[in-house]
Amino acid sequence: MADAARERIAALDLIRGVAVLGILAVNIAGFAGPPSATYTPSIPTPAGPADEWAFAAMFWLFEGKMRALFSLLFGASMLLFVERADEQGRDGQAMQLRRLGWLALFGYLHFLLLWWGDILFLYAVAGTIALALRKASAPALVGSGMALFLFWQVAGTALSLSDAAIEQAALARPNDTALQERIAAIKAPYRVQDAADMAEARRDWGAQVTAKLSERPFYLLRVTLFAIGETLPFMLLGMALLRAGFFSGQWPRRRLRQIALVGVGLGGAVSLWAALWARAAHFPEMTMRLLVNYALGLPHLAMALGYAALLMLAAARLVRSQPGHLLMAAGRMAFSNYIGTSLVMGALFYGWGLGLFARHGAAAHWLFVLLGWALILGWSAPWLARFRQGPLEWLWRSATEWRMQPLRRRATS
Fold this sequence. Notes:
mainly alpha, 17 helices, 77% helix, globular
């Protein structure tokens, strides 16, 4: 692992490039509509058949899988950074803690200035906890990560099951007035919040920032408490995979094929069944919240691991190809691309931009996803041909090192 740590592991960049593209496919509903729209395409307006199929495709291929993949990679990259710094005679843990502190600040600014759906603050908090376990063995990391993950998923499912069951009963008995009133009361707070979120999204930039500061300054802390039981285990698993040599090509191809087959095959089959069932049921909101947040956690993780194994199998060829070159460049600039996506989508959907918020259904959202993918793949490689890092990666590193780092590449004759 020491030799691998001296150089950037190309496979990490490749997989991260795929993940940053996939994250946009999931997040687009949250850019184009209120947070509730990330669970069902029928919010804020009823969805047509094309919208439901488009949402089902996203749900099957990306929902939960990209979140897991990105968290796995963050854990692996964090451990790699510490090990490389330690090999250079520096205090890798202290440096990583500084990096995470700056990341928390960047995350809060991202939430405040651009978009409510920030994950960087959550990653900073979860990463700080994961860092305390960095010396654990790979089996210990896997065991602790899976134990926490399963506890979190079971507990969350138990807490969410009642609302989903009431919703299903109400759908089965539309003439039962008591049931209809009961599910309406459960959903009422969400509708109030949706109205507030939609009104805020249509304001100018200054009004949005002021609203976040005055009305929900601790929003990211609530998000962290809600999601850390999923994110932290994934980071621990990513650390274990790095320590076990998964990302450095040390695993036999037969084992990778087995992981890909089970992960994508079995996890994909369960996810596909859930997507088809949800589409046929028109994506009932409370049931979707249960599925997205908790009940499908294991299939999501299985598919994320399967995706990672598939990419590792293809890495030797991909890293030498033009598509692979573009994906690796996107992955090396994942921080800049993640924040850049929020800037571009905010300019398209929010009141301080073109104001397209809540005007398009899930089918049309894919046009914006394709636009985002084109921008990410189109600018990352040309930028890195001239500069050493992405702009935000450079800023993050400079802040961590407490001094300005070189950015522009030296000209060669």
